Amino acid sequence: MERDIQAAVGDCPKCGAHEVACRYNHFERDELVIDAWEHRCPNCGYRATTAFRSDDPEPASNPTICPYCQRSPRA
Ligand SMILES: [Zn+2]
Ligand SMILES: [Zn+2]
Prior knowledge:
mainly beta, N-terminal domain of TfIIb, binds zinc ion, 47% strand, 4 strands, four-stranded antiparallel beta sheet
């Protein structure tokens, strides 16, 4: 499993603090690939998550780009 966390990627939509952390997780098991994104504010606990699965009927075209801040994981 790969993990990539970037701190302070943007403003929290709930409390406005510029502390939202962007976390990326990459899972692979057999044929299944999951790219999961989470934005979380350590200040107020706001949290948003999206997971892209390779077995989705309509797989995302760019699962390694964050749907919230459009960053890519660090190489
Ligand atoms: Zn917040
Ligand atoms: Zn992000």
